[in-house]
Amino acid sequence: MRKIVICGLVMLSACLSVPAIAVADEVERIPITFPEIKSPELPPVFFTHEKHMEYVERLKGDCTSCHVETEEGMSPDFLHIKKQPADKQVAYIHAACTDCHAKANAGPRLVECRTCHDRQVAQAQAQ
User: Fold this and answer.
1) Model-level pTM?
2) What tens digit of pLDDT does each residue of 69-78 get?
């Protein structure tokens, strides 16, 4: 019995030593590359397109909820961010994202910076 308990504790400690990101992060994450922001305080944002599409479907939306439709098809750019003045683009993207999160009653709000600007996720994506 003692060997079983010791074996169980060893296995538990091995599982707990595995970084959470390696176990939980099996989805594709897309980097937000525009507007380009170099901030020593906050890491870049990587988001899950698939998870966001679930929200859009739940809200009975379509791809134009986030993307601009062009003659060539759906633009990979987020809404009209490039049409915003350079000094307003960060505020625009924060407002657009958090407004959608509020409508979906899901996801982080503007005051929860580290939910999107996650250092562990950014480090894992850099590898």
Assistant:
1) 0.65
2) 889 888 888 8
